[in-house]
Write a structure and sequence with these properties.
The structure is a homodimer of 301-residue chains. By secondary structure, chain A is α/β, with parallel strands linked by helices. Chain A folds into two domains: 241 residues, Rossmann fold, CATH 3.40.50; 31 residues, no CATH class. Helices cover 51% and strands 12% of the residues of chain A. In chain A, strands 3-2-4-1-5-6-7 form a seven-stranded parallel beta sheet, with helices on both faces. In chain A, α6 links the parallel β5 and β6. In chain A, α4 runs parallel beside α5. The radius of gyration of chain A is 21 Å and the shape is globular. The interface between A and B is large, with 65 and 66 residues.
Chain lengths: 301, 301
């Protein structure tokens, strides 16, 4: 990927970002067929070391001969400029690699706009020929969960920090994970944390194929094993047909979300400022005022 | 507030929580007039010590003779059960106080459902006679920002942790703050962090009345000053009329949000599963498929 193409991709992404509810994707010369790339959603609490892990993962994918696109939707990510200087230097080192494209998306966009935007961004990066796409979010809000759920695999990154015992892990994070990475295995108590997690996974579902990988992003320990597992996960899902199945479900959710955004934008524009002001200044309770507005809009057709 | 009323309030809140887009508020005997309570939104990064600070603040409000309602929308909050054991014990100590009501809200609800839910919850707690309401969120997603923006004052809690230099503070957090609390002042480098923050605030706007308060939630240092300032902030806003002005703007945003939710629910229910499936299975790009669905819904009226 030459720097000219990268610049063009960057501009297209800015366009996607500005048009929250989205425009049609542009025509691109000789696009890679959509869906060629393996999309990995990476989430987990702040401080688990997601960005450093992604950095390692990207290098390992490069060693395997892949090109890599990184989309960061995490405001605390060094990819988006939210971290300490040392991290940023290491990240820009990665950015110099011709086969790596890094982009952050702003966390704006009410009404699912950001999730729609992240999906469009991933499509564009895919069409430009990157074949491993990593999307980073911080696993807190519903939007962030929507984003990682739109990937082919969701990796939850945890670290055995003080107070973060396995029981305290948000149930939501357990439910969306396809793969766990337990980072910072050099911390005291890490082995215990890992075995507690494995026990918890086994107790939830004895048939579960959910794996937890111990890694150390600071020196690269365990990254190769994790990468190989991700590769085999993708190959297996493709062969078994579960990849197609998953993508069909994602497509349904995506169309619904887009349609809801379009619907709101279309109807809302028919409301005048005066009409809105009149309702706000009425003494009606908020819910009744809202219902009155909706009545107006729906009758207008 | 006797335990019977608390139980009733709790049940009403569960109802609000289940009906994401909300039902009309119930009739309550002798309600406190809506808007009597001072609502304080508390946000900031994970690990800044928001919950411990809120605990201290609540006790101080109690000392001043107020009753206190705490609504936690932060999944990592000990109020919602997401933290270490020691914290939970301290919190339940607070919960034994008759003049304190604590409630957590689940972080579900796409399409602004959670923000609507938090506003309804605050209204209920207000009507039940609590006159200081603290709403805790973790400052990441748009929903969380919406929630604190619906309060009378927004307090951003920061801690001088490693790597968290003032430049790295999310611009969004700076913009929504009415008051800063710099917690963990016993950490090395805390004084520097505080003075950097004050400089940054002065540089952004030399006329700014935005104050940063140094506190130490672990031993209570600075909490009285912070509480007194919050009290005077509320009194001043009430007297100057800025409170009414702010609440009118919030009411407009709230009605808009509610109306959008109602609109979606009303129109979406007219779509059959078959219609949706047909569009998903069409080979159309997602955006075109969504546009086709919207066309159908709008024509149906």
């Amino acid at each position: 990927m030459d720097s000219k193409s990268k610049l063009y991709l960057s501009r297209l992404l800015s366009r996607v970002e500005r048009l929250e509810t989205g425009a049609a994707l542009p025509e691109i010369e000789n696009p890679q067929p959509l869906g060629s790339a393996f999309r990995i959603g990476v989430t987990g609490p702040v401080g688990a070391g997601k960005s450093t892990l992604i950095n390692r993962l990207a290098r390992e994918f490069r060693n395997l001969g892949h090109t890599v696109g990184i989309i960061a939707v995490d405001p605390s990510s060094p990819f988006t400029g939210g971290a300490v200087l040392g991290d940023r230097v290491r990240m820009s080192d990665l950015a110099l690699d011709e086969g790596v494209f890094i982009r952050s998306l702003a966390t704006r966009g009410a009404f699912g706009g950001l999730a729609a935007c992240a999906e469009d961004a991933a499509d564009l990066v895919d069409m430009f020929g990157y074949n491993r796409i990593i999307i980073e979010t911080v696993g807190v809000g519903q939007t962030e969960v929507d984003i990682v759920e739109a990937c082919d695999a969701t990796m939850v990154v945890l670290a055995p920090e003080s107070g973060d015992d396995v029981q305290a892990i948000k149930a939501g994070l357990m439910e969306i994970a396809d793969i766990f990475a337990v980072n910072k295995m050099d911390i005291r108590g890490a082995d215990r944390f890992l075995s507690d997690l494995e026990t918890a996974l086994a107790m939830r579902d004895p048939e579960s194929r959910l794996r937890a990988f111990p890694v150390q992003s600071n020196n690269g320990t365990g990254i190769r094993q994790l990468t190989n597992y991700l590769e085999s996960y993708f190959d297996d899902a493709r062969r078994a047909g579960t990849l197609t199945q998953r993508r069909t479900g994602q497509r349904a959710r995506r169309i619904k979300r887009l349609a809801k955004n379009l619907l709101i934008n279309r109807l809302w524009s028919r409301l005048s400022v005066e009409e809105l002001t009149a309702v706000v200044e009425s003494g009606l309770p908020a819910r009744d005022a809202a219902a009155a507005l909706v009545e107006k809009l729906v009758q207008r057709g």
